[in-house]
User: What shape does this take?
Amino acid sequence: MTTAKPTTIGILGAGQLARMLALAGLPLGLRFVTLDPAPDACAAALSTRIIGDYGDREKLERFAGMVDVVTYEFENVPAESVGYLAERLPVYPSPRALAVSRDRFTEKSLFVELGIPTPKFLAVDSLDGLKSAVCDIGLPAVLKTRTLGYDGKGQSVIKSDGDIDGAWASAGGAPCVLEAFVPFTREISVVAVRGRGGEARFYPVGENTHSGGILRHTVCRLGDPMQSAAEELASRLLKRFDYVGVLALELFDVGGKLTANEMAPRVHNTGHWSIEGARTSQFENHVRAAAGLPLGGTEAVCRSAMVNFIGMMPDAAEVLSVDGAHLHDYGKAAKPGRKLGHATVCGEGGGAVAAGLERLLRLTGKGLDGQ
Ligand code: AMP
Assistant: This one.
């Protein structure tokens, strides 16, 4: 018998995703070091903390010296910092996946190259460029900044020519993409995980409701008719990057045809239901993959749905009075538009979960349609 040194996973970012990664990995004997500029970041209690900017060389060097493998909880880590770490340590998922997903134009160009359907899009660098892109793509269309956009930030819908100037002004001169507005039937996502040995597994697709560009709730769909089509599209990305870890692919379902919106090379909000709803959560499978451990089953163990708490946390007792509800309070200070926590409701039957979902949504002041 050997007494192996525990694997230490370094996470760039110490927010709620890092917190849930650590919560999943600590029981496996894994250790965590996080690097994040915020002194009060919510993964603090579960990891050895380095407080510093992602671009701070001295902090990065210290971080690299303390960990065996690096992962990240968000896409906007500076490329140079990831490059610096990748020269010294394994970085999962691959920095190539991170680089592509950071820029909506390169991401959509890759979708095209891999034959993954995506809305028609064009790069836009000026107001004149936007006007000509509108002529080409038609209206309605969505203008999105190429980088640093998430949760609907940095994007505006252009419905008529009169919206063009305002949309360009709100992008603040940043390089953008203009893409066709998709009249989707519903939004779904597939969360996939691939191990170091190349084994890939897929979670049941989530059906997602957004409002104001932010995810409000996800229903885990068992036996969804688009499951295998979604898996096939995600597989192309996994293969392309020789991917290790969790990947999420967000898709529009347009009457039974899938169109990709975006990919995320990390654990994803639409997979949070898996903590209680799947045999192995996305968080555990991500750290298993990063640490070179065998993957766990991704199948659902019950029916489930997840509700985000944005801007304010409901009363814990009220959440927990919903039969089958599990509460996750990230311990963050309340701020408008900020993801502060979530709850997952689990049950044997779809009816019980739908009833629980409705009660949880009422606590957020939103309805089933996200409004
Ligand atoms: P994103 O930041 O690209 O994930 O967009 C946030 C949300 O805005 C999506 O989940 C959709 O609800 C909506 N959205 C984004 N792009 C489009 C599009 N091309 N057509 C219709 N809705 C969109």
Notes: Residues 119, 142, 149, 152, 179, 181-182, 187, 210, 213, 250, 261-262 surround adenosine monophosphate (CB under 6 Å). Residues 350-364 form the longest helix (15 residues). The longest strand covers residues 245-254. The mean pLDDT is 96.
